[in-house]
Amino acid sequence: MKIKVALAQFNVQFADPAANRHRIAELTAQAAMVGADVVVFPEMWNTGYALDQLDQLADEDGKATTELFYRLARENQVGIVGGSVAVKENGHFYNRTLVVDPLGQVVGQYDKVHLFRLMNEHRYLAAGDQENYFRLAGASSASFICYDLRFPEWVRTVARHGAAVLYFPAEWPDVRIPQWEMLLKARAIENQAFVVAVNRVGDDPDNHFNGHSLAIDPLGRVIADAGEEDGITYAELDLDQLATVRGPIPVFADRRPELYK
Ligand SMILES: NC(=O)CCC(=O)C(=O)O
DSSP E strands: which ranges in the chain? Predict the structure, then answer.
């Protein structure tokens, strides 16, 4: 079975949720027109890292994002791994992913578990503590957010349920893009899974972002690299490849969790 994934890398407008929602709608329609099964967006796409303005800008209980994705998924008959958005809930702010199926139903939700101090997340956001494991486009899948990529123990904890596809929405600055690529390849190889990682392009007051959203196969080979431009790059994931990779080297069956402290 093959699934077609749209890596929707775009220039998130700083502190401008309305403009970003408009762009999300355009990109979703564009991806659906060419038959994508799933469209994936970057991290914090509603506000960017306007963390000191979240009181005015964050999505109250995620309602606006849920409604937008419900409409877009149904109109375009496409699954959405919704990057992440700043959400205000019970007096806290979260960096939250919503995943919806083509019927617009929320099939996954995730609050970023590891907050990135270098971009001040720990000062403004509350961390999540739940896994996000879901089925989308017929594939068992899991999602993480950006800095979570540096925690192989967390990715493994979730991936060991058998995920075929691991999604990583991100706002990962250009200065560390060589690490981004290596870490994504490592997560794909060690978990014998496809990795789909979507970064943004453009600038905010503190960082430059140069994209390089990537789709990587379970052997660590890059299937698609979005380069540095704003726009959609497509990747076809051949899920049948998983059996040929996992069969001869059954890393999940060979684990020795009793030794891992
Ligand atoms: N938004 C993030 O979590 C950025 C993570 C990052 O840049 C890193 O190097 O890790």
Answer: 2-9, 38-40, 59-60, 79-81, 85-89, 92-100, 106-111, 133-136, 139-143, 165-169, 194-198, 201-203, 208-210, 214-216, 222-225, 231-238
**Cβ < 6 A, ligand 1 pocket:** 43, 116, 119, 146-147, 150, 171-173, 176
Report the predicted TM-score, pTM, of the whole model to 2 decimal places. Answer: 0.98
| Residue 67 bears catalytic tag | no
DSSP letters, 85-103, are EEEEETTEEEEEEEEE-TT
Q: Which of 2, 4, 26, 43 is catalytic?
A: 43
> Which of 113, 116, 144, 210 best tests ligand 1's pocket when mutated (most atoms within 8 Å of CB)?
116
Annotated domain spans of the chain: 2-259
Centroid of ligand 1 to alpha carbon of 171 (angstroms): 7
Check residue 237 and give its pLDDT. Answer: 98
Exactly one of 121, 146, 171, 185 is catalytic; name it: 146
CATH 1.10.1710.10 holds for 2-259: no
* In contact, 181 and 213? CB cutoff 8 Å: no
Q: Tokens 């506000």 sit at which residue? A: 47
- String of DSSP letters for 109-124: EEE-SS--GGGTHHHH
63 labelled catalytic: no
Q: Whose CA is nearest to atom 1 of ligand 1?
A: 171
What is the per-residue pLDDT across 205-241, written as a single tens digit (0 to 9) for each? 999 999 999 999 999 999 999 999 999 999 999 999 9
State pLDDT tens for residues 35-64: 999 999 999 999 999 999 999 999 999 999
Cα separation, 211 vs 199, in Å, equals 5
